[in-house]
Amino acid sequence: MTLARILALKGSDVVTASPRRTMGDIVKLLAEKRVGAVIIADADGYIAGIISERDVVRTLAQRGADVLADAVSEHMTRAVVTASADETVDEIMDRMTEGKFRHVPIVDGRRLVGMISIGDLVKHRMAMAEAEASAMRDYIATA
Ligand code: AMP
User: Where is the CBS domain (predicted)?
Assistant: First the structure.
């Protein structure tokens, strides 16, 4: 199963922000959009970094509320791991497990075409498991 299938179901919307936005802006964006991470995109729309709820909590714990006035570019992760839509769910799950992160932007070349979260993958796995169980029940009932 490829990531393209999941993107076709959930859409290609990605919450992005400029590197100049403040950490306070990002906190509001995370809450308003009900997402766990925001892609920081440069003026050309290419990925410059990622900031997640974990980064916000960590920087607040380490430095206090003053960080809310800092530019997000000071606290984002710059080395962003991406995937392409033709990769499989298993491949991206391995990448998330290895890197210990829960969000992966999907790119076509350098262009951002979607975002997959661990929640999307769990939802997909649950649907697959339910479909298999249902097929098995039908098989047993008709055998
Ligand atoms: P998360 O589990 O997604 O909340 O992220 C945990 C940490 O990994 C945070 O420091 C994020 O900035 C970072 N992170 C999240 N997604 C990625 C990614 N795709 N590539 C690199 N780092 C990431």
Answer: 8-67, 76-132
Q: Where in the sequence is the domain holding 65, given as residue range(s)?
A: 3-142
Residues 11-28 pLDDT 10s:
999 999 999 999 999 999
CB 41 within 8 A of CB 17: yes
Q: Work out how many domains the chain is built from and give that number.
A: 1
Q: How far is the CA of 127 from the centre of ligand 1 (A)?
A: 25
Q: Answer yes or no: is the C-beta of 101 below 6 A from any ligand 1 atom.
A: yes
CATH of the domain at 120: 3.10.580.10
